[in-house]
Specification:
- This protein has one helix spanning 2-90.
- It is mainly α.
- The longest helix has 89 residues, at 2-90.
- The protein starts with a helix and ends in a 45-residue tail after the last helix.
């Protein structure tokens, strides 16, 4: 019976050593993949933050550009009104052949909205391409 117990202890010890070796390799393999996963998650978080920052910068840029273009259009409108009024005051003899179109100005000298109903000139007349009727 004692030889059986020694053999049992020997098998248990060998199993324990094999278990430690297998556990060590499994831990080492999974530890690297866990490190890679944590690293990838950190990179993803950084990329998302950069993307959000770029989106905010783009929104700010386009909002500022729109404001600048609006003020530029207003300044050009003021310049046009000034030149139109001044041409009427300084050069009254040229009222028939004006430098500025008076149809664009109302009686107060402000720019009146355009009243043209004509379609744009870039449209072709009739059909073209595959559906063009041969004559």
């Amino acid at each position: 019976m004692q030889t059986w117990a020694a053999e049992m202890w020997q098998a248990a010890l060998i199993g324990l050593v094999v278990g430690f070796v297998i556990g060590y390799f499994l831990l080492r393999l999974t530890k690297e993949s866990a490190k890679k996963q944590v690293k990838t998650e950190a990179e993803l978080r950084v990329a998302k933050e950069q993307l959000e920052s770029q989106k905010q910068q783009l929104e700010k840029h386009f909002a500022e550009s729109a404001d600048l273009l609006k003020s530029l259009a207003q300044d050009y409108q003021k310049l046009y009104q000034h030149l139109a009024r001044s041409s009427n005051q300084l050069l009254p003899e040229l009222n028939d052949s004006t430098l500025f179109q008076h149809s664009l100005l109302d009686e107060k000298g402000n720019v009146s909205p355009s009243k043209t109903e004509d379609p744009p000139k870039d449209y072709s007349e009739g059909s073209s391409g595959l559906f063009k009727a041969e004559r």
